Amino acid sequence: MSGGLGKLIRTLQIDTRLLGMIGAFIVISLVFHVATGGTFLTPRNLFTLTLQTASVAVMATGMVFVIVTRNIDLSIGSMLGIIGMLMGVIQVQILPDFLGFGNPAIWVITVVIGLLLGAAIGAFQGWLIGYLVIPSFIVTLGGLLIWRGGAWWVSKGTTISPLDPNFVMLGGASGTIGVTASWVLAIVGSILTVVFLINTRRKHISHDFAVKPLWAEYALGAILVAAICGITAIMNAYLVPTRILQRRFAAEGLEMPEGYTEAYGFPISVLIVLFVTIAMTVVAKKTRFGRYIFAMGGNPDAAELSGINTRMLTVKVFALMGALTAIAAVIASARLGSAGSSLGELDELRVIAAAVIGGTALAGGVGTIYGAILGALIMQALVSGMGMVGVDSPLQNMIVGGVLILAVWIDIIYRRKTGDA
Amino acid sequence: MSTPLLEMRNISIHFGGIKAVDDVSIDVMPGEVVGLLGHNGAGKSTLIKILSGAYKKDAGEIFVDGQKVEINSPIDARAHNIETIYQTLALSDNLDAASNLFLGREITTRFGLVDDTAMEAESRKIMARLNPNFQRFSEPVRSLSGGQRQSVAIARAVYFNARILIMDEPTAALGVHETAMVADLIKELKAQGLGIFLISHDTREMMDLCDRVSVMKNGQLIGTERVEDVTEDDILSMIIMGKNPKKAA
Ligand SMILES: Nc1ncnc2c1ncn2[C@@H]1O[C@H](COP(=O)(O)OP(=O)(O)OP(=O)(O)O)[C@@H](O)[C@H]1O
Ligand SMILES: [Mg+2]
Questions:
Q1: Secondary structure percentages of chain B, helix, strand, coil, to 5
Q2: CA-to-CA distance for A73 and A322, rounded, in angstroms?
Q3: Which residue, of A124, A299, A315, B160, has the fewest CB within 10 Å?
């Protein structure tokens, strides 16, 4: 990288891969913004984009761990299907009989059962892979067929709807936290970010490690806080359509005041993604479990010789993947308000593509959570943008396929150049 | 005679049809260095991997301080303060030096999270002793030179207060200067009372560093001799002919 800018980036210690991905996202957005005559980069469209990305993004974080341990999970789309379907049956056909329609316990029980189911299915597949040493490609290819068939079998091909009204809020389309709560969250997030930066710096100084110059620390803090507030401002700029507001006032028998407006704020599903991202990043970087996942991916024999039970680790990684798939199933079915037997179809490919575009190496040992999230966002931006421009879906698929290959090729060149990872 | 610090008695293991180790017995006293010599494929690494918990023996017994112990996993070996530098180094290439050094035994904060800063600080301390030129702490060990990687593997074995140290060709990738440093380290650890099994193909180095040498061939123990009782030629002929000249005489 040339002189001044390269030096700046190094001083700030920003990952160049991260910059590249953000750059790619911005370029894609700008191109579509121009091509759509100015509708792509609007609060409304960005809001929709995050909603559409949420379920794939959640699963992509789990896929990072799976791929880092030199495995693959092809079953997640079908798993999402059957879990979504079973959760649909539970909340629509079973629980209301006991608890009464609309009881808030319904969504809680449904989600808990979904999570347990996902973790159990994942753990079982992980056991076949870790302990019976059947390749993950085969086990999860079998899973892809089995769980998709199972989803159909549960519903005999029908679609279960409408889902529980509280449950549906988790999908985000009708569940947002509003302006005030969004700003509170942004402020809390900003404070935590700054505290984290200060703590890290203190710790490094106390051990006499080299630290960034103070101005770089301030700059980094400012960039992060600006990013948090910027995203919040966008979410808070998307106004609820007047029609919907009028209807809501009418339902309460009130007249809507002249010039009254209200914005959506963060959708609940996006907050779930945020939570999953932070949690998974902590797991990856700061827990033994995460450390062992990367150690196993780098050298399975070395991991074994260090006393790591790589078989059990495999079971845990797939169980986690299953639990995250269940979360994705909640988001996906709640967003649609229904559970059909094709829910989640082809998601495994989107998720794998997101992880790989995000820099996860199929050879194992390398990958980041934020990369996978950005990968998911880039893919969804591409798909939505093409849809808005009027590209028909066969051509969309062809383009996404081409982009996937291109992204991996760029990644290979990047790695060769930097000599890292 | 006093009790050995560690004794492996009548150890056997086979892989398919190959008897990789066939009824071998070796031992080491506190403050003693025992060398293992033999051709490629003689069974040296396999024998010590049984001791480090990497392989499960088919037959034989292991004693620490005269007490019979069961070593079924690397964790068991570590619990008996047996540390190993593997011939393959056994490093995770994608992790940095500190993560490798503490792999499986991470330092954690009071919240149970891994404390990378503390581990790096400890790694810097031990490396300052072993290889003062080593500075690349935050890079994946993949990008280190063979010798630097070997230093990381040595640091890992030495850091955790081993009583019994297994070194499988620890100087294979090292330069002259670094090899001399490892020799000094071995002498220092020996003076501290550790028992050391050293594997190397360099007979002269072995005559210099070891108190006794055991020679293996085709999985069998040819003999164990004190270095002052034999010449380098005697050792070579044991390795090559598979016969103990002293016993024949
Ligand atoms: N995991 C394994 N599976 C099958 N055979 C093995 C295995 N490990 C070792 N062997 C065989 O056991 C024999 C002894 O191997 P070992 O690695 O112990 O030799 P070595 O004395 O350490 O040789 P070198 O000097 O080349 O390191 C060889 O014939 C080898 O092929
Ligand atoms: Mg060997």
A1: 35, 25, 35
A2: 10
A3: B160
Q: What is the DSSP letter of A175?
A: -
Which helix H or strand E contains A381, and what residues bound it? helix A369-389
Q: Are B219 and B59 spatial neighbours (Cβ–Cβ below 8 Å)?
A: no
DSSP state of B19: E
Ligand 1 centroid, distance to B54 Cα (angstroms):
13
Determine contact, residues A272/A170, Cβ cutoff 8 Å. Answer: yes
Q: Cα(B133)–Cα(B247) distance, rounded to whole angstroms?
A: 47
Per-residue pLDDT tens listing for chain A (421 residues): 456 777 777 777 777 888 889 999 999 999 999 999 999 999 999 999 999 999 999 999 999 999 999 999 999 999 999 999 999 999 999 999 999 888 999 999 999 999 999 999 999 999 999 999 999 999 999 999 999 999 999 888 899 989 999 999 999 878 899 999 999 999 999 999 999 999 989 988 988 888 888 888 899 999 999 999 999 999 999 988 888 888 888 888 888 888 888 889 999 999 999 999 999 999 999 999 999 999 999 999 999 999 999 999 999 999 999 999 999 999 999 999 999 989 999 999 999 999 999 999 988 999 999 999 999 999 999 999 999 999 998 999 899 899 889 888 888 888 887 765 4
Ligand 1, atom 19: nearest CA belongs to which residue?
A: B41
Question: Considering Cα of B87, then B90, then B96, then B101, what sign does the dihedral take?
Answer: negative
* Residue whose C-alpha is closest to residue A151's, from A161, A143, A163: A143
With an 8 Å Cβ cutoff, is A10 touching chain B? no
Closest CA relative to residue B201, chosen from B157, B170, B226, B246: B170
Protein residue with its CA nearest to atom 9 in ligand 1 = B46
User: How far separated are the first and last CA of chain B, in Å rounded?
Assistant: 26
Whether the complex's predicted ipTM surpasses the cut of 0.90: yes
Answer whether B143 sits within 8 Å of A282, measured CB to CB.
Answer: no
Alpha helical stretches, state H, B103-160: 116-130, 146-159
Question: Do B98 and B127 form a contact (C-beta atoms < 8 A)?
Answer: no
Contact A39, A45 (CB under 8 A): yes
A359 interfaces chain B, CB cutoff of 8 Å = no
Q: Is B79 helix (H, G, I), strand (E, B) or coil?
A: helix
* Nearest listed ligand to the Cα of residue B15: 1
Please tell me the distance from the alpha carbon of residue A90 to that of residue A107, in angstroms, as a whole number.
10
Q: Which residues in chain B have Cβ-Cβ distances shorter than 8 Å to A292?
A: 104
DSSP β-ladder status, B18-28 and B164-168? unpaired
Alpha helices in B36-86 (DSSP H): 44-51, 74-79
User: Within 6 Å (CB) of ligand 1, which residues are found?
Assistant: B 15, 18, 20, 38, 40-46, 87
- For B74, the closest of A291, A307, A421 (CB atoms) is A307
pTM of the model: 0.93
Query: B90 to chain A: nearest residue by CA?
Result: A302
Point out which residues pair with A38 in neighbouring strands. none
Q: Which of B20, B65, B26 is nearest to B45 (CA)?
A: B20
List residues bridging with A215 in a β-sheet: none
The token pair at B10 is 């009548």
Nearest alpha carbon to residue A162 among A368, A351, A340: A340
Ligand 1: nearest atom to the Cα of B43: 18
**Residues whose CB is less than 8 angstroms from the CB of residue B132 and which lie 6 or more positions away in sequence, other chains included:** none
CA A319, CA A119: separation in Å to the nearest integer? 4
Hey, whose CA ends up nearest to atom 27 of ligand 1? Answer: B40
* Interface contact flag, B99 A305, Cβ < 8 Å: no
B74 touches chain A (CB under 8 A): yes
Please state the atom number of ligand 1 nearest to the C-alpha of residue B39: 25
